[in-house]
Specification:
Layout (H helix, E strand, L loop, with lengths): L1 E3 L6 E3 L4 H31 L7 H15 L6 H63 L4 H18 L2 E5 L5 E5 L4 E4 L2 E2 L2 E5 L6 E5 L2 E2 L7 H36 L2 E2 L24 H4 L13 E2 L8 H8 L13 H41 L3 H37 L1
Antiparallel strand pairs: 1-2, 3-4, 4-5, 5-6, 7-8, 8-9, 10-11
């Protein structure tokens, strides 16, 4: 792109590679999304892997381990109290993880309006520059180049936040749309995005021109945030709820088949979980609670047996090895291990993708800087060349003036 400065014989030049600019914009969208996802998934890993507490897998093993120890001395009140204590620790671990995930989700939800506000500010600025650039070019050709550079910076800042496509029209304006074609900037008009609750969910959805586009946003920082908030954290809480609900039901079922220390039928060990939404275990991990308060109420004996019997306690211990999860193909420990592995794998994948795209992005930016940048060595040579030419011209003028003076003097004589 070349443009006159408005001064005869002087031209301002602006060299841009539009394909490279577009490619940088695309890489920024990937980089922004994966960078946010990588950071958020590491936070999820930190919540799941307790640094100070037992950790859920350890709490599960300790719970069943306490029942296993009870089989050796089924009448011992100390051993029975240890069972209740380990059960309490297990419920607290469910609560800790679930609360941590909900707090992270709430934190990310609060970020949605903030990012949308940043997006709206950038699209408004791009629309304003669309209007200023033709006016600047008409009044003083070449003066619009700085505005074009400013507009490109806005486009790239926008790309870090949300997946976009853009193109330049014949008028020199930039049209910006979402990846699905929703208009963000047309000529000198920008279209604001808005946030509103998604149906019955309290989480913030994103709307454009009155249409909910939340599910279509999958790149840029906003896309990465929504994927973690709506998919990754949801997967974690669902897995925890399924574990808690299944554990409550199966332990209560087996416990009811035995007799406690007083020869009574086993009562509920955990407070029963009742689905508020048919077919959904939502809330089970948040509400799991030990129902028994008296260690004598633990039904370690089989029905009809004396207090020294341990058959029902042994049956409860065996639940740890039952295939109760993933359509009856995995034990509780296998299910949780697979759950942890998936989150860790997602975190590593996001980090690897971030590193790859950041590397590609840096190479592209270096190439662009090389294309449009100033070569200092070359400029130094040019300065010396121009200086020598000036000195030669000055010397030629001086000699010419001296000869003219001498010629006039001779003619005068």
């Amino acid at each position: 792109m070349d443009a006159s400065s408005g001064i005869p014989g002087v031209y301002l030049q602006s060299k841009r590679n539009e394909f490279l600019d577009s490619s940088i914009s695309q890489e920024l969208q990937f980089s922004g999304g994966y960078e946010f996802m990588s950071e958020a998934l590491r936070q999820i890993e930190s919540i799941l892997n307790s640094e100070n507490g037992l950790g859920l897998q350890e709490a599960i093993s300790e719970f069943f381990g306490s029942f296993n120890r009870l089989t050796s001395t089924p009448e011992d009140l100390v051993a029975r109290q240890q069972v209740l204590s380990s059960a309490e620790a297990l419920t607290l671990e469910f609560h800790r993880i679930y609360t941590g995930l909900q707090q992270l989700q709430a934190s990310e939800d609060r970020m949605v309006p903030q990012i949308v506000q940043e997006i709206n500010a950038l699209t408004s600025e791009i629309a304003s520059l669309n209007e200023k650039i033709p006016a600047a070019k008409a009044s003083l050709p070449g003066s619009e180049l700085t505005l074009r550079d400013e507009r490109q910076k806005c486009l790239e800042a926008l790309s870090e936040l949300i997946g976009i496509d853009y193109f330049e029209t014949e008028s020199g304006s930039i049209t910006v749309t979402t990846k699905q074609g929703g208009a963000l900037v047309l000529e000198n008009t920008s279209y604001d995005m808005e946030t509103a609750p998604m149906g019955i969910s309290p989480l913030a959805g994103v709307q454009l021109n009155g249409k909910d586009i939340t599910a279509t946003l999958n790149s840029g920082k906003l896309g990465g945030l929504l994927q973690v908030r709506d998919e990754k954290i949801k997967y974690c809480t669902q897995a925890l709820d399924d574990m808690a609900a299944t554990l409550i039901e199966r332990i209560n079922q087996q416990h009811s088949l035995g007799n406690d220390l007083d020869g009574l039928a086993g009562a509920d060990f955990f407070v029963p979980f009742v689905q508020s939404i048919p077919g959904s275990n939502e809330g089970a991990a948040r509400h799991i609670t030990v129902a028994l308060t008296d260690p004598r109420g633990i039904a370690a004996a089989s029905a009809g047996s004396g207090p020294g019997n341990n058959e029902n306690a042994r049956s409860i211990v065996a639940i740890e090895s039952e295939n109760l999860f993933a359509t009856a193909t995995e034990t509780i420990n296998q299910f949780y291990a697979g759950f942890i592995f998936r989150i860790g794998s997602d975190a590593h994948a996001a980090e690897d993708n971030m590193i790859v795209h950041n590397g590609v992005l840096q190479q592209m930016m270096n190439q662009r800087d090389s294309d449009i940048g100033v070569n200092l060595d070359e400029e130094a040579v040019n300065i010396i060349k121009y200086q020598k030419a000036y000195e030669a011209s000055a010397r030629y003028a001086s000699i010419t003036i001296a000869l003219s003076d001498e010629l006039l003097r001779l003619l005068g004589d």
